[in-house]
Design brief:
Blueprint: H1 2-21, H2 30-37, H3 43-63, H4 67-79, H5 88-123, E1 132-138, E2 146-152, H6 154-177
Antiparallel strand pairs: 1-2
Length: 178
């Protein structure tokens, strides 16, 4: 029973971190998570657990790990348990969490990247070169995901945004025909 309760608390912590970091839920705080999920844990131990889980989620999300990549990553993390890794229960919780949240987190990360790119291009003045960094997660042609970072000047940013709008219009036309 204690193991089930610990797994439930860890799952709640992972979901709470995602709510705060990716879904911008300002009501979720580190203090709330500690009070609701780990009230008996000393503050320094909770802070270490919170920071470790947040860092692992960030690593997993940044790489947009598929199932095989995630399993390899978590296996490596369990092997270095004594030096900042995770135990088997934590690895299982992270695996369940990512399986349920991957698509949503990827969509949020992609949208945030495009919004940053658009706002950066809108803030620039015409004489300076705008450099937009766009982080995109692509998996169009295969199951393997890749992290892509592109740098554009203002003209290329506008050109890319126009092409993306054209693609969206084409998709909309196809979808509405059927």
């Amino acid at each position: 029973m204690a193991d089930a309760e610990a797994a439930k608390s860890l799952s709640g912590l992972l979901n709470g971190i995602a709510q705060k970091v990716y879904y911008n839920n300002s009501e979720i705080t580190e203090q709330l998570l500690k009070r609701e999920l780990f009230p008996e844990l000393p503050q320094d131990a909770f802070t270490a657990l919170h920071d470790k889980m947040r860092g692992l989620i960030k690593s997993i999300a940044t790489a947009d790990m598929d199932h095989a990549q995630l399993e390899a990553f978590l296996t490596a993390q369990t092997r270095k348990q004594g030096s900042g890794g995770v135990n088997a229960e934590q690895a299982a919780a992270l695996s369940r969490f990512w399986k349920s949240q991957r698509v949503r987190v990827r969509e949020i990360c992609s949208c945030v990247s495009i919004q940053r790119l658009q706002s950066q291009s809108q803030r620039s003045n015409k004489r300076s070169l705008v450099k937009g960094l766009m982080s995109s997660f692509s998996s169009f042609l295969s199951q393997d995901s890749e992290f892509v970072c592109l740098e554009f000047d203002e003209a290329r940013v506008n050109q890319m945004l126009k092409k993306m709008a054209d693609i969206q219009e084409s998709i909309d036309r196809i979808v509405h025909r059927t």
